[in-house]
Amino acid sequence: MCGIVGGIIKGDIGSLLIDSLELLEYRGYDSAGITLMTDQSELNTIKTTGKINLLKQKYLQSNTKSGSIGIAHTRWATHGSPHETNAHPICSDDIISMVHNGIIENANELKESLSEQYTFMSETDSEVIAHLFRANIDQYKDPVLALRHTSLKLDGSYATAILSRNHPHKLFFSNFHSPLVIAITDHGHYIASDHLALLHLSNQFIYLKPHQHGYITLNSIHIFGQDGRPINPKIEVVNIVPPTIKRKPSEHFMLKEIYEQPNVIKQQIEQHTTHWNPLIEEQLHHIKHILIIGCGSSYNAGLTARYWIEACSQVSVQVEIASELRYRQAYHKTDTLIITLSQSGETADTISAFASLKKSNPQLTSICITNNNHSTLTRMSDFTIITPAGPEVGVASTKAHLSALFCLYQLAAKLNHAQAGQDTLDDPTQLHINLKQTLALHGNIKQCALQISQYNHVLFIGRHLCYPTVIEASLKLKEVSYIHAEAYAGGELKHGPLALIDANVVTIALLAKDHLYDKMISNINEIIARNGPVFIYTNTHTDPFENNALVNTIRIPSCQNDLLPFIAAVALQLLAYETALARGCHIDQPRNLAKCVTVE
Ligand code: G6P
What we know:
Layout: E1 3-9, H1 14-22, E2 31-37, E3 43-49, H2 52-61, E4 69-75, E5 90-92, E6 96-104, H3 107-114, H4 127-140, H5 143-153, E7 156-164, E8 171-176, E9 181-185, E10 188-192, E11 204-207, E12 212-216, E13 221-224, E14 230-231, E15 236-237, H6 253-259, H7 261-270, H8 278-284, E16 289-294, H9 296-312, E17 316-321, H10 322-325, E18 336-342, H11 348-360, E19 365-370, H12 376-380, E20 383-386, H13 399-420, H14 431-439, H15 442-452, E21 457-462, H16 466-481, E22 484-489, E23 505-511, H17 517-528, E24 534-538, E25 551-555, H18 564-582
Parallel strand pairs: 16-17, 16-18, 18-19, 19-20, 21-22, 21-23, 23-24, 24-25
Antiparallel strand pairs: 1-4, 1-10, 2-3, 2-4, 5-6, 6-7, 7-8, 8-12, 9-10, 9-11, 11-15, 12-13, 13-14
This protein binds 6-O-phosphono-alpha-D-glucopyranose (G6P).
6-O-phosphono-alpha-D-glucopyranose binds near residues 344, 350 and 397.
């Protein structure tokens, strides 16, 4: 989703900002732009649709490359098409230049009152901020007061970075429910929507809280709260090595990240006893209900966890899509533990759902499972469990998803131990080896993908733990290959999806050697009887469909059933990847999707 970088330094900042913008590419975007302020306080803006390298070319060809203050942006279209006019920075004549992440929900209303005075050039909701700030500067004569009054008028979510040609040595910012971080360096100050964009420049950061606004200069930082009072910021030293988010030129990030999974899980297995906050374990003794909230793959991880937790404890589990829970009037018992799942820790729907839950149930304890230690959800939660997946660049989550899934498995095991003094879930200590064996099937899976890529409709089926696993597999396939895919519980086939089955719809069945094996075999037979081709992914050794021309069986490494979701996830990620590759899709940045969804 949209990304902001900006800064004020000694020397020219243009190419540094474009480099940092490239580090935000992973979020997903469709246009990009930069404004530099010259020594004569002129605002020079360059914008382009498409990729950042196009912006870079335009910048290098321009005559106005100098400037020590600047703002830059990658835009993921929400209001208005991905056109150059709608790309940010958005200007109010040559007076104000502004970049915005988020959505201004009352933009139309504000536009009505501002359009007598200002000409709106874009279709964006963001443009109101530029004009409103300018109008407020005229009215209040003080840019900080103007910024505060601008923020007070905005409904929705926003992070902004703003330049005003009449205040040449200041870079203004404001935020509400959209992340913004300031980096301190020995050559000046930067601002960005993600510290990943600035880690190569600094390890000292200030993570802004909602409703804060202010400005940075070359030598100072000024932050104010909603009431206008100055805030003494907390500087956090982040001791992480700038991540290598580079890959071999021939490789996609998605494939690189799929292949990193055995090591991520190995690390988690090794940290099992050391990495967990004992206070979390203490919580597990008392809780009776768990409410898991997430979106996309994170939600799917929650669905899988429900089966594990229910199987090994007396705790009831509810799994909710954040964007739905947010607007429901659900009742929650006092001994409920809230678990938010979010690889980015910045998903607007999850944050809003959690914020409103906390407001109405302040007594409930919360744990956030995330791949981002410095995220909004981390700050909002009582406890955080960090997944050690490292930065994930591919928009379709693979290693961060699997790592969160493993955290949930460990949590279920700890719950089992805390409440029943037992260890009934299957031992996962060899899981990383099974995952390596799964990667060794890449060639076979590729052959299968070449066939799947010929279809326009794919039906996934599974039962018990295989059901949420195929929900995630179907999401992955549609995200990266753009094939229409749906996932059903095997038992639901007869309640609708069977009507779709013919030779043109391919079914992918995940078959476990578990208590529902025979029922799944019946479901597969129901499909074959209707001439539907089937690919079976299974951890069993028997093959009841051995000579059936409609059936292909792919044997995934043999494993205990509790661990099958991990093995199958990796096999089906490879299937999605290879299918997308065969169809020539934009694998790492699928059309219309974003990695970090900071708008509702
Ligand atoms: C986007 C990503 C998905 C992710 C979902 C939830 O849609 O493309 O891969 O599962 O957001 O993101 P979160 O950061 O909350 O896990």
